[in-house]
Amino acid sequence: MNEPYSPTTPRPISTSSPNIMKIFMCFLTVLIIAQTIGTVLYSLYLQMKLDKLEQELSLQEDYLFLRRLQKCQKPEGAGASLLDCKEIIKRFQDLLVKDAEVSKDSATFEMQKDDRHQPISAHLVGLKNSTKPVSVLHWQETGYAPRSNLISYTGGKLKVNEAGRYYIYSQVSFCTTPAPGAPYTVFIYLNLPSEFDRLLLKGQDTHSTSSAYCALQSTHLGGVFELRQGDMVFVNVTDSTKVNYDPGNTYFGMFKLY
Predict the structure, then answer these.
(1) Stretch 226-239: mean pLDDT, rounded?
(2) How distant, in Å, are the alpha carbons of 208, 244, 250 from that of 205?
(3) Interatomic CA distance for residues 148 and 1, integer angstroms
């Protein structure tokens, strides 16, 4: 008798193994992350401890050095001690010199920083230094109008140490007589050592017709100019012997716009 064929029923696939594998991988990932964070935190803690220990050692060395220096300063202790007092005192003197140099550099830096915040300007008043005619008028500083360190003065000329756009001005007061002649002229020049001086401003005033011995007049000039580092400007007149140097009458200055 033939029996009917019945295929074997397949076993159900177990799904527990993949789930266990996923859980294990998640646990392993969390463990690695936790270990990495712990290592970083421990490294930071160790670095902080080392810095603190180094600071304490440094303070201890400074304390020992000061104690040795104190012993060397005592006459009775210098001879009886095994310390090299000459070397210790020399080290102390070197430290004092270095500290003085650092303080000087710091003061210089602070002064330069303050100069950068101060307006770049100069205002000078007339200075009569000769009874003979001169080709360049001379000036002097005043206490109420200090000159910036970025503008220097020498031989009647103002020199800019920082390039930029400057307003340059001058007023010259002078005495004239009723005698006819050419007009009294005031010039402001840009000094160019390698070529002829360049005329920047020019002002003229005719002679007075007054019968007075000295008729006081004045000419004022002013203008904006682009100057390079190292450029110098000066003032000249047709006859410097007629300039009036009374306070407030004759002056020369400049200031940086930007």
Answers:
(1) 95
(2) 9, 15, 15
(3) 127
Q: pLDDT at residue 161 above 80?
A: yes
Residue with tokens 């310390």: 83
Q: Would you call 237 exposed, middle or buried from its count of C-beta atoms within 10 A (0-12, 13-18, 19+)?
A: buried
Residue-wise DSSP of 188-238: EEEE-TTSPPEEEEEEEEPPP--SSS-EEEEEEEEEEEEE-TT-EEEEEES
Per the DSSP assignment, residues forming a β-bridge with 151 are 160
d(CA 180, CA 11): 135
Beta strands in the chain (DSSP E): 121-126, 139-140, 151-154, 157-160, 164-176, 184-191, 198-205, 215-227, 232-237, 251-256
Number of H helices and E strands in the chain, helices first, is: 3, 10
SS3 assignment, position 94: helix
- Reported as a pLDDT band with limits 50, 70 and 90, residue 3 is low
124 pairs with which residues across the strands?
252
Q: Is the pLDDT of residue 76 over 80?
A: no
**Whole-number mean pLDDT of the chain?**
81
Domain over 121-256 is classified CATH 2.60.120.40: yes
Q: Between β-strands 251-256 and 164-176, what pairing exists: parallel, antiparallel or unpaired?
A: antiparallel
From 77-81, 196-200, 208-212, 232-236, the region with the lowest mean pLDDT: 77-81
Mean pLDDT of 213-239: 92
Residue 41 CA: distances (Å) to CA of 31, 35, 238: 15, 10, 83
Strand, coil or helix: 29: helix
